[in-house]
Amino acid sequence: MVDQSISAGSAGAAGSSGAAVSPGPSGPVGSAEHITISYAGFARPWAAWISHQLEQQGHGTTLLRWDPHVDTALVEELSGLLEAEGRLLMVLDDWYFRLGPKTQDEWTAALREVVPPHADRFAAVSVATQSLPATASLLRPTDLRDLDAQEAHRRVLTRLGIAAPPRTVDDNAPGEPRFPNNPPEVWNIPRRNNRFTGRDHVLEELYGKLAGTAVTAAPPLETRLALYGTSGVGKSQIAAEYAHRFGNDYDVVWWISATNRGAAREQLAELATRLGLPVGRELGDRIRAVHEALRIGRPYRRWLLIFDSADDMEQIEDLIPDGRGHVLITTLTRDWSGSGSAQEIEVLPFTRVESVAYARRRAPRLTPVEADMLSDAVQDLPLLLAQTAAWLDANPMSPKEYIELIRRGEPSLVGIRISSDYPMAFQTSWAITLNTLRERSPAAVELLKLFAFFAPDAIPVPMLAKARRGDLPEHLADLAAEPISWNTALRRLTESTAVRLDYQVSQDADPAVETALMHRLYHRFLRSDMTEDERDLMAATACRVLVTADPQNPSDTRYWERYAELIPHLEPAGVLDSADPAVQQLLLNCIEYLRVRGEYRIGLRLCEQFMSRWQTRLEPTQRTMLVLTHQHANMLRRLGRYREAEAVGSAVVDQLAAERDPADADLLRAQDGLAGTLIALGSYEQAYDLFDAVWRAYTDLLGPEAPRTLSSRHNLGNVLALLGRYEEALVTHREVLAFRERELRARHHLTLNAGTAYARMLRLLGRYRDATSSQELNARLHLAVMGAHTPQTLRAEHNLALCWRRSGEVTKAAALMADLVERSRRVQGPRHPETLMVRADHATFLREHGDLGQARDLAEEVAERYQALAGERHPYTVGTLGNVGLVRAGFGEVAEALDLAERALAGMTAAMGPDHPWTLGCALNAAAARSRADDEEAAVELGRDILERAKATLGDLHPLTLSAKTALAEDLRALRRRGQEAAKLEQEAIQQLSETLGAEHPHTLSARRRRRPYWDFEPQPV
Fold this sequence. Notes:
Number of strands: 15
Strand order of the largest sheet: 2-1-4-3-5-6-7
Radius of gyration: 36 Å
Distance between the termini: 62 Å
Structural class: alpha/beta
Strand content: 5-15%
Helix content: 55-70%
Number of helices: 44
Mean pLDDT: 86
Low-confidence stretches: 5-31, 213-221, 410-422
Largest sheet: 7 strands, mixed
């Protein structure tokens, strides 16, 4: 198949008029007949499918795109087709007879003159949804509408008189184009613009670049294209037309409005459901699952994602998936190509031929000369041409008079105030449109102004229609109360302005408007053209509508869809500038939704935007500012920006402590938040002091079993564990769990979380059987109640994997740990602290039970990431560095392992003190490293110190104490003169291990086999 375009006088040899020629697969050698397929651009999927069917029968084909010039006689254009090779098969659709445009009389005359003398060469099929002109009967078209692929295939061959045995048509066969009546499996693209005109060179360039990469081993960069151009030049329309015209080449075609990061994430996450991916409700989880599915090409290999209006690359770049599918971006900036993220195709205004053709189709009363004059007046800019031609089609003013008004650039003639920031042609044409609309439908103009205070690509029409009467100005409230008037006003806007309506189709009711879309150029202009009083009135109205739509419960997952709908409108509605307490509460609710949903970057941006506008107008201790400051620190901490979070939290705590009572609720909340940041920083003693004070204050104020008191005590138990005070932490978590079970149901998420914390403490105390039994039940309940893809479930299953490992159930632990690594990466991201925690434990598991090389790579990567996240002195950085030392020892790198072990011991002693269990573990590994380096005296000296400290800190029977005892026995044996002492220690250790863990436990068996014990650092959840 050869694909080429045809215009006046160019129907001869391929490329004779400079038309682009794209090589494609040709028919087999010895084809009986060559067939040229003529089609309008809209029908390309049909032309490509028919071409493939014919080539499978042994016929060569050529595709000719039909696009007659307006100034060339149709007889000449139609006769030019006869210069093409072989027979002619015309694919007739709703557009074939409209292009040019050519009149029905011209078509009648041309067909009667050209077809009868060459009837043996002409054939036609119809895929039109509307009636064809009567004269099309000369072509005797065969109808292919509403057929399956098999019958359509048979009819094409019959119309061409080709006798061939039946062939099974399989869309899924390699290289087989999809049958046009079978749309892509997953489809989400705006409605096709039936007035789309021209742009064939851009569409063909897009297709050439993308189709070329689909069959080669070109790098993935070539599958990322950015349509760049000024506002109003038609980038979005080109992207949508590409999806409709070439969508049958894909299994997934998905449109994402990328003006707002939050809305873009929601739309990308929605694709997870459409792909049938097994994910939970967490937005990050769903996005990562989509990225992974697209990257590996399962369940669909052929996909196209379109990111429309992606002007802020920093906000959108991380949403662009990898893989062999295609990404199309529309943008006002050159950032995408400048950064190397995508190849650029610049979109210019219409050519004059395209402008004239479009204007005459949109306003048929225009002559070619008038259409040329109009195109010149608006500088061939598609958006302005659409606006002006639509006005001329709906109004009786003389085209020349209207064009003269635009040329003169005097919008004041029609009584409209215009900003000088916009092109004169735009100013004048829009002024005329608004003036006409105001005369015919004043209510529609007011509605249009209100639209300008919502996000332009998703104006929530149903939300406005259902607003409380008091939320709207009286005239708009009257309009919304009368459905016929409301829908009439909406229709007026679509007829006269750059507003498009999208409908939601329900089986139970008539189609209803779901959203309205307005080009951003008009959106900005409408706002700038209003007086300050008008803007204030419309902003207040929009804010009231959003407040009414707020469910007032951001933690309830049932309302998450509504909050996702509200957030894109906060900024255009003026929520960030409102002093109304109800509007500020709306903002706080939206930010809390973003926090619980895990959308920290968007939440941080909203916090910073509000605070930058109000920090000089509101006291830092005003309620809204306090809550936002608390959330600001929350977002910073969750994004790993610990020092910034500490600075924010410390400042507000210091101020409140100086002004408020110690039991003040705002102060307690601020102290609780700061303590959480201090934990992340590794400042556990300071965090303990704050958590202890907050818990005691809540106990006095609310009682020991109040929800806030229990949450505070749970936090206190966590920091006790981090301080190595395991017995105290166990008691704390056991009592919290008992309260939760008594006051809440056993399956409540807070009860389940308390259960995980309690089982973790049992494990850290060496009570492995009890811990495993408790955690197995807890993990089953988590899966049943919360699903497999929530952070809390991941923590529960992570603890279960560690319980199995410590209990000797290695096979089960291996499978779960590997699964958790992947799930955590998808749910929380590869750099999240809890993902690092899981990967750290996976590295130590692999070192002992798996691939030593993989363990080394993973251990080193984790240690580097902890250093970047928390600093080189943080205990997690120090501990994971010690794990690297263990894997180096496994490779026989004695000197390197000793250096790392000593550095870990020194670092952990400095961070946590000499008696902390983590320090004792690092010391155990350092003693082993000294022993391997033949420094037995130093190993024994350190070993004796470890054993005494472990007994005092953890007790005589803790696994770490018994490991210290067996290690010391080994080092004493190496000195030879201490053989009797070594034997006694070894026997005691084996006996105690048998009694506490069991005779067949791995620790006991290792001691009997005289395998040197080691200690793995396990980062704890924060």
